[in-house]
Sequence to fold (354 residues):
Amino acid sequence: MKARIFSMIVALAVVLLGAGCGKVDLKPVTGTQAMGIEQTLPSPLGRMSSAQESRILSLNPERVTDSDVRNVLAGAPAPRIINIHGGIATVIKRLESFARFLHGLGYPEKSLRHPGNGQYTVSCYEDAEMIAGIIAWYYEREGMRPMIIGHSQGSFQAVKTLQLLAGQTADHLSVWNPLRWRPEERTEITDPLTGKKHPVVGLKVSYIAALGGGGATRVLPNQWDMMLSLRSVPDAVEEFTGFYLGLDFLGGDFLGWGSANHYHATGSARVRNVQLPTGNLLTHGRTPDLDGLLSNPQAIEWINSYVPSASPVAPKSLGSVQGIEFGADVWKSVKRHWVIELQRLIRARRGHGR
Fold:
């Protein structure tokens, strides 16, 4: 019996990996190019006028409207969003679609793309140590804590990154330069809000959305170390939302049913679990594919007025739009943390003088 179970696990791993590896080669840029790109990155000093800063400070992060995005946040810097796609090549374009969806709603494209090669996503096969080091690099230069959107195995990598930042699986981490694509010879950054040195271990991410983490992908060898800790969210993030849906064989424990799919905080992190409408065996990969909604005014209106729920269901008048609930919930949180991070940056800057 044990031999049969092991054979089934191996066969499943071969099928998943044989479907096409979702690896994207991120090549380093030259030293001169890297220096030029770094000069174009958003700066903690920013270029916002005092009037715009005051309007941003007056925003309520819990109620950021479409008008606020278009008329107040427009032109302002935004926290870096790191999209981590799953392990099969075909899902890469799905998360790229989601990045375009966020941009179409008003999020700055520069904060969604890799600054060197312009790609929207990184692979779940990249080391979590690298992702943690890149988070530190972005925060030091941009003054806003990044966000992560993980899909499928990307959700595993998001939690692994949090465990590293929380010091659970590493005592120290190197800063990682995403342009030169190598670690730097330091394990500390200068906090752009305080001017003080801060180790990479102990930094926080502002928001994480984890979609479809678990299920059959647990048996893949690169995820065995997460077998018992996938659902545990440490304090290295302010807000974490786990999304799951029924009949999800690839990304849902017990086919996506029940509390086995619930994440929980090990400390003070704000953790939510959202059950998306039940789909089918193909829904796992298709849920983030949402840029087609940008041409649907009714759908966009519902998304912009969305009220968070643990089991959201879009009105039938919108028709059958797979993933719209996921898009609406993530956009609500992205707007919230965009404002929170900008307000932290502005208050720190005003407190220390320009």
User: Anything to note?
Assistant: The two ends are 69 Å apart (CA to CA). Residues 61 and 336 are 5 Å apart (CA to CA).
